[in-house]
Amino acid sequence: MAATPPKYAWLPPNVIPDQANPDWMNTGDNAWQLTAATMVGLQSIPGLVILYGSIVKKKWAVNSAFMALYAFAAVLICWVGWGYQMSFGRTFLPFLGKIDDVLDQHVLLKQTFNNIKFPNATMIYFQFVFAAITVILIAGALLGRMNFIAWMAFVPLWLTFSYTVGAYSIWCPDGWLSKMGLIDYSGGFVIHLSSGVAGFTAAYWVGPRTKEDRERFPPNNILLMLAGAGILWMGWTGFNGGDPYMASIDASLAVLNTHVCAATSLLTWLLLDILFFEKPSVIGATQGMITGLVCITPAAGVVQGWAAIIMGVLSGSIPWFTMMVLHKKIWLLKQVDDTMAVFHTHAVAGTLGGLCTGFFANPKLSRLFYLVDNWQRYVGLAYGIHEGRAGDGFKQMGIQILGVVFIVSLNVVVTSLVCLLIRVVVPLRMSEEELIGGDDAVHGEEAYALWGDGEKFEKSVHNSVYGFDQVAAV
């Protein structure tokens, strides 16, 4: 490669103006990674914005959607400021990276870690959307009562002190659980188990909704809820398909396994609803879809199709059992007001997926994903027993269990500390007036302004700013 001309010395060493696509970059992989990242971003906005805004009571539609929208923006600024380097940068501790510059072109235009064939800018964007959706999933447990100012503080604090530790430990090549050989293909531990446990813990500290809301909390628009759920489902193509960091055959397998498991889980949950409640519930089917997507995430590209179907049956039945049966019997579960049941759909399903990964992981597929030629690593227990290497299989199961214990402990402790710190400054829960008034009391805005014979009554405090008429014909 020719030397960089002096006038272009500001560029990274391997990049010169006539080589916008350096020798180390694969344009197909880079294009797929940017596409996959955008699909994951769409899961949050508009996916979860629509899902949250429609699955709650009408008076909480704006607040619930806004919690997701705010978190997406706040996480991005924290991510490029310090979060990415703490999660994937140079080692500071075995579970944390050093805070370093990330927005300089010398960083952004260089090849990313592990000789992956696209630049750091792509990796930063891809990892950002995963961090964002994790925090937004936590919001699902807190809908309908968390003080919005407290939520504004919670997002950067939790991202900084919890998410980065889990991401570095499991996903960064230098992380301690990564070095041990934990299999978390696309975030069963880092994203779903974390958000489920953190959401449940935060819900404990924030406190419950009003008694009226806990007893009756109907969705304000089930059809719109399905639209958000559909975006979430289809966006999972990028969620799991992007994690090989290349447009590979393993990415194709991961995508197919993802949708097979989700469909199987949805049908299993639906059948259980019909069997025990005699009515097919669209909300239940949506929950089954989510648990299937969560369960397959840590295993998507390292298990065979038949294993994905088994995992779908398990993810459609075990979280159903914990939500519909155990939740009514276990004291702690009854005491904590988890609005969207993220403990069951993400903590339980994420744990199930992580353990199933340790059991079903195919060593040949694992080597396709991790690109290592070590037959003693990433061996599922089922294959270890079948191939006469039960010791390797039991070791993998032990590592998976250790990962569960670590993520649960991390999130219970850090989430509790973050909530206790915030409540020293502002209340975690809304005032009684806000809890009764809902969106209008909190934001001065309402999602649905139709009344009477089709007139629109707009009483937003923002009228003078945005030029809305007080009363206008629709």
Description:
- The chain is globular.
- It starts with 26 loop residues before the first helix and ends with a strand.
- The protein has helices spanning 27-55, 61-88, 105-108, 120-139, 148-170, 176-180, 188-206, 211-215, 222-241, 249-277, 282-296, 305-324, 331-335, 342-360, 363-370, 381-386, 390-425, 432-437, 439-443, 463-466, and strands at 91-93, 96-97, 450-451, 455-457, 471-473.
- A 3-stranded antiparallel beta sheet has the order 3-4-5, with no helix packed on it.
- It has 474 residues and is mostly helical.
- Helix 4 (120-139) packs parallel to helix 7 and helix 9 runs antiparallel to helix 10 (249-277).
- It has 2 domains: 16-434, Ammonium transporter AmtB like domains (Ammonium transporter fold), CATH 1.10.3430.10; 445-473, no CATH class.
- 65% of the residues lie in helices and 3% in strands.
